[in-house]
CENP-V/GFA domain-containing protein
Amino acid sequence: MANVTNIPTVLREGAGLVMHTGGCHCGAVRFEVWSSPDLHVFNCNCSICTKKQNLHFIIPKSQFKLLQGSENLTTYTFNTHTAKHTFCKTCGVQSFYIPRSNPDGYGIAPHCLDPGTVCSVKVEDFCGQNWEESMEKHQTIRSMSKNVAE
């Protein structure tokens, strides 16, 4: 897992990023992410996102830090095996994962963030049932896992 401290604080704060913390239901898995306080969340209708109600926002790997619980995580993959659906072995909650759309980043579940750092949430529907076509049409999703300085 990447270490968020690799990004200079001045770049994080200059880009309007705030540190959010969060974790799974039982508390075994804890993490921090640097992201905007105004979240751009995807509501995907692919088979797994539909079953899990997987709303998520995307960040670069460098803006994620696992604080505890690596030994409590397990991973599920299917189809292309690009997405890595990580979840807590104890409570079953997926707080974050590596999305197929952005294998160089993380999808973070906004409902797993601790209260107090989110100002607003904009939800965008994404048609994962027609994944390839949707990815071709979407103009910005791939850039969401790029560092601010890139």
